[in-house]
Amino acid sequence: MIITILSVLLIGAGTVFFLGAAVGLVRFPDFYTRTHAAGKGDTLSSLLVILGYCVYQLKDFESFGESWPILLVILKLLGISVFILITSPTSTHALMDAGWEDKVEPTIQEGHPNHLNDDSGKF
Amino acid sequence: MLSKVFATLAVVITGSILLYGVTDFPAFGDPKSPASAGVPGSESVSQYFITESYGDTKVPNLVTSVLADYRGYDTMFETVVIFAAGMAIFAILRVVGDEKDSRKKRVEENTFTNGDHSRIIVGTTCRIVVPVIQLFALYVIAHGHHSPGGGFQGGVILGASFIILALSDHLNAALRRFSEKSYTIIAVVGILIYAAFGVVAQLLGANFLDYGVLQPLLFTDGPEMARSHSMLGVEIGVAFTVTAIMFAIYANLSTRGLLRNGL
Amino acid sequence: MILAFDIVILVFLVIAAIISLSVKDLLSASMIYGIYGFLICLLWAEMGAVDVAFTEASVGAGISTVLLVATVFNTKRKSSD
């Protein structure tokens, strides 16, 4: 029972972060902030949802001798989460980098200290 | 404009004919449909596959046993089709030697090992991820008759790992590991492995691709295990061809056949 | 086979197909074609055809998107019709 509640909480938190990512994708003003919202929200929420699945798998766990297939499933799920943890931020970075090379303009207010001058398009 | 009207008309007519045909289909998973139950007087093929394929071939995944054994011809010529597609792209796109037109514009080789730091994050991640992907691809190929997967899927994943290397670093980094010469040879060798199983079966007096007679060559207990092992060999042949052709198609498409200055 | 899940996937499938046919930017079209591949992979996995879903995920959504993007990169990006 407590395991079910814990997994529901984790998966629910994951979906909340997914919602945040989706809202950020629609509401943010320019390419970079949108990609940032999508990348961060996606990574965290996928990890939370997979963690919720892991916890849910423990529902039928009795002993190490008998329920080792459950541990195998959890190991695979953890492998997927490590893969997401490595690749998802990298793909976000690659997307941002490609946008920067393609000279996509960020939206920054006039007079802000981070505002780019005309010739500062390169690092 | 007129062509668009005709195209729309053709699509609508074909679609409505297809939709009309769908109404005669049995429901999804209907046990009384002819495909599942057979017509009166003869046993259905799928019933035979479902009940007998494990006893015939000792392969738990009956999709693989149908694909690589009962329908061996089909899979072999599917592989030939992929090979032909790769060779067609090679024949259309590949440019050999120095050409004089505007394509000659050479870009310096910007790899992160050459000091282009903007690629260092992507390159390092791909160096971590690519071995895992290749290991998974080999697992998919070798475990194809016990779990979902097989030669096509594993070959595509293995080819994709080389494509990731080419995308993250540079095409030359992938070509150094999997050169044009080697991928052409491997593509041919894959089909030859597949055909060799058939020809050897013929030489031993059975039909083409009838793996059961390969038992004395494979040192197995019975013809069933011989069929299982032959399926593994056949899958490896398919994986060879698919890996090589996928990478060949990418390398030729992304460089307009020059095999340098990739994406 | 869950009917509600099926209907949701099929609706998204039709939307993705129509958008990928109608959008002018070929890069977006190939990306949405990748989404179409993933949706049809989901549909097959949910119907129990795991082998086909696996093939679709690797070939339809993975490799063919990369090949389409590589082709778009080397030709022009806007569709003419």
Task: Describe the protein in words.
- By secondary structure, chain A is mostly helical.
- Helix content of chain A is 71%, strand content 0%.
- Chain A contains three helices and no strands.
- The longest helix of chain A has 34 residues, at 68-101.
- By secondary structure, chain B is mostly helical.
- Chain B has a domain at 60-96 and 108-254.
- Mean pLDDT of chain B is 84; it is low at 101-106.
- The N and C termini of chain C lie far apart (40 Å).
- In chain C, α1 (3-22) packs antiparallel against α2 and α2 packs antiparallel against α3 (50-74).
- Chain C is built from three helices and no strands.
- Chain C is an all-alpha fold and 81 residues long.
- The longest helix of chain C has 25 residues, at 50-74.
- The radius of gyration of chain C is 14 Å and the shape is flat.
- Chain C has one domain (3-74).
- The chains are: A mainly alpha (123), B mainly alpha (263), C mainly alpha (81).
- Chains in contact: A-B, B-C.
- Chain B binds chain C through residues 4, 28-29, 61, 63-64, 140, 148-150, 152-153, 156-157, 159-160, 163, 167, 246, 249-250, 253-256, 263, and chain C through 1, 47, 50-51, 53-55, 58-59, 62-63, 66-67, 70-71, 73-74, 81.
Write the layout of secondary structure elements.
The complex is a heterotrimer of chains A (123), B (263) and C (81).
Chain A: H1 2-27, H2 31-57, H3 68-101
Chain B: H1 2-22, H2 34-37, H3 45-57, H4 62-70, H5 72-93, H6 120-142, H7 151-168, H8 171-177, H9 180-203, H10 215-218, H11 223-254
Chain C: H1 3-22, H2 26-47, H3 50-74
Helix pairs in contact in C: 1-2, 2-3
Offer a concise description of the structure.
The complex is a heterotrimer of chains A (123), B (263) and C (81). Chain B is mainly α and 263 residues long.
* Strand content bin of chain A: under 5%
C-alpha-based Rg of chain B, rounded: 24 Å
Oligomeric status = heterotrimer
Q: Which two chains share the most extensive interface? A: B-C, 26 and 18 residues
What is the arithmetic mean of pLDDT of chain B?
84
Number of strands of chain A: 0
Low-confidence parts of chain A lasting 5 or more residues at pLDDT below 50?
Answer: 119-123
Number of domains of chain A: 1
Which structural category do the helix and sheet elements of chain B fall into? mainly alpha
Tertiary shape of chain A = elongated
Considering DSSP H and I runs of 4 or more, what fraction of the residues of chain B is helical? 55-70%
Q: Radius of gyration of chain A from the CA trace? A: 20 Å
Note the main sheet of chain A.
none
Biggest beta sheet summary of chain B:
none
SS strand fraction of chain B = under 5%
Percent helix among the residues of chain A? over 70%
User: Could you give the distance between the termini of chain A?
Assistant: 55 Å
Rough shape of chain B? globular
Number of strands of chain B: 0
